[in-house]
Amino acid sequence: MINIPALIIICLAGFAGNISFSLLFPVLPYYAQDMGASPSEVGLILASYSYITAIALVPSGLLSDRVGHCRMLIAGLILYTVAPLLYPLASNLAQLGFIRAFHGLACAVFSPAAIALALDTSTQDRCGEALGWFTTATQSALVVGPAMGGLLLSHFGFKVAFYSCSIIPSLGLIFAISRLTTLQPAEAKEVLSRGSWSWLKQPTIFAGLMAPLFFTLGSGTILTFMPLHSQNLGIAEARAGIIIATVYIGSALLRVPGGKLSDKIGRRPVIPLGLMVSFAAMLLISFMNSFSGLIAAAIFYGVGMGIAMPASYTLVADLTPPEARGLTMGITSGFLHSGLALGPTVMGIVASVSNYTTMFRVCSSSLILGLIVMLGLTQKRYQAH
Q1: Cystine design at 56: which of 108, 192, 238, 264 (Cβ 3.0–4.6 Å)?
Q2: What is the pTM of this model?
Q3: Does the CA dihedral 11-300-215-122 come out positive or negative?
Q4: Radius of gyration (Cα) for the chain, nearest Å?
Q5: 93-107, 244-258, 323-337: the lowest-pLDDT one
């Protein structure tokens, strides 16, 4: 059973929060480039968001379990609203990186609480489906955001794009505050009162943790460097935003089916399937030089993510204690954002010494590595749930 009213509120909050940073995907690479950034510096600046998020997610997850998931959800939406207003104040690359990092703190505060609340809306046998719906909402924001950002940049410039991405999370904040009673927030509590962390020693749990890292290593590379790669191919800024958005169209469309599939046949078979699809798509991206070809390959990459990501999160949830759900979702999201940080950083170096085509091919090899790791971690250790 799923608590539909509560899940709808959490989904709308997730959509609002993700708009706050996804709108800037096609904006910040050009903004940093105009300030004199090299490809590797562009990658590092954009990755600063995910570095801070990855570092802060675990303590934020712990705090969420202690003070209540609803309070942290509201705090995250406040930060999502404030952070975009700071970008126009940056006068050099160091300041831009610092502001981007502050924006990442919003995600660290918001994500563990939101995912824990989404899981709490369902019974165990429908966790995959509930998380599928929640991540469909967040992926939908990643569809709308880049397309909107590219259009705003093309027609109105940087400042309007920055100020605009504060509006939707502010509306989400107002809506969430007005509906708090529906979520029935839990009282503050101690986390893992027995001091047991034995669940973290299970090899299979690392399959659920590592999969988001490998997927977002690839998606982080796409969202950071597709605008500059498209520029080299003569593709306009607005179209670059659309290419990024199509990654998340493919992902959003498969989140609920992927979650239901993992509920039905188990988490273990679904994750490698998604990795194989995304590997093939990343390889295709490196060979495409037209707008239509990049659109097709980007959608294909998103399909792989959509199939496997709900299974990854619910695999971790299946194997960990409910009273530590904020912590465990924080750890899982920490791995996800580690991929978002490492992808732009490492692949930015590859692009600086070679070109973007080679960079995408190198990135595809990381997904094969992820597939090998997943098969090794899950072999004969995890059945159904």
Answers
A1: 108
A2: 0.73
A3: positive
A4: 19
A5: 323-337
